Amino acid sequence: MAVYTQLGAETLAALIAEFDVGALVSAKGIAEGVSNSNWLIDTSGKDGNGARFILTMFEGRTDVGDLPFFLGLLDHLADKGCPVPRTIHDRAGASFRWIDDKALALIEFLPGVSVSEPTAAQAYAVGGALAQVHLAAQDFGSTRANGMDLTAWKGLLEDCGAQGLAQINPDLAALVAEELPLLAQNWPTDLPRGIVHADLFPDNVLMLDDKVTGLIDFYFACTDILAYDVAVTHAAWCFSNDGTRFDADISQALLAGYEAVRPLSEAERAALPLLARGAAMRFLSTRAYDWINTPADALVVKKDPMAFANRLRFYAAHPALFAA
Ligand SMILES: Nc1ncnc2c1ncn2[C@@H]1O[C@H](COP(=O)(O)OP(=O)(O)O)[C@@H](O)[C@H]1O
Ligand SMILES: N[C@@H](CCOP(=O)(O)O)C(=O)O
């Protein structure tokens, strides 16, 4: 579930009244998501014909100092025709407001559902949408360092400790000890960089049939290697949930969709095997940390770190996977 903070009806109505969107009609907590609290908001609409929004309350994981970057990026991408929700600004022009010590943003609602078993046509569309974002963000004026880079993965995994990792799986510490130095020594420094989504999992993509109607949850977006974002999206889309089954058709379609909009250079393609190992390590590290540190009575479903250890092993065993 992802409503960590309860907001009373009066508080919500007063908040919505700060925006030019009509009066609050209903607010329903959204169960999906793990990081922030989200509500589906219905209002009477500016013209009385009704309107729908997502209200997001930023909980501890999002640094409020980054909100101008995240919310400004949504508006920039939407202006450029990407399937990304706009931020609704309040009557004073602010892109987010505060209730007590928590920041909240009202976001355009986009139609569509997250697919759990993508078809090749859907993967092709997702690849294309990712490339469209990479190109459209080229003239976005701001940058943001990736807080979830190699140094951060290393820190999280050190914090877990060999014993903590062994509690998850007896082989996990050895895998991490082997892969982390290899990634650190070989991580590319000269590939094209730009704004990346960095978390484009199926639950962050809304689709209707084969069309991408919404890319959401840009709260890890940052400046990094563009091909790393391709690798993250590949790791997220091309395997069964538990990471034990790789789907070559989805992989081929995702990459073809991306390249139909932004062809990869030879250097980018050559780096994909290593970047994919890095992408798998990134999600292994946060999932392992959460697995060990989330209290047993927390209201969040913990995600399995081994699903990304399995992907990591697969990428390490198939270095020719991305050969053109
Ligand atoms: N702009 C949007 N339009 C429609 N639904 C949305 C939108 N933003 C979020 N949602 C819904 O809210 C859920 C949680 O949002 P998300 O941003 O992924 O939360 P979290 O950051 O906690 O993971 C999504 O799975 C989706 O169902
Ligand atoms: N996609 C990550 C977790 C980040 O959660 P999100 O709900 O904010 O996308 C994972 O699967 O580990």
Automatic annotation (TrEMBL):
UniProt xrefs under InterPro entries: Aminoglycoside_PTrfase (IPR002575), Homoserine_kinase_II (IPR005280), Kinase-like_dom_sf (IPR011009), Pseudomonas-type_ThrB (IPR050249)
Source organism superkingdom: Bacteria
Listed GO MF terms: ATP binding; homoserine kinase activity
Protein family per UniProt: Belongs to the pseudomonas-type ThrB family.
EC number: 2.7.1.39
Domain Aminoglycoside phosphotransferase as annotated: residue spans: 27-264
Identification of the protein by name: Homoserine kinase
Record flagged with keyword Transferase: yes
Organism: Novosphingobium umbonatum
Record keywords, A-Z: Amino-acid biosynthesis, ATP-binding, Kinase, Nucleotide-binding, Threonine biosynthesis, Transferase
UniProt KW Transcription regulation keyword: no
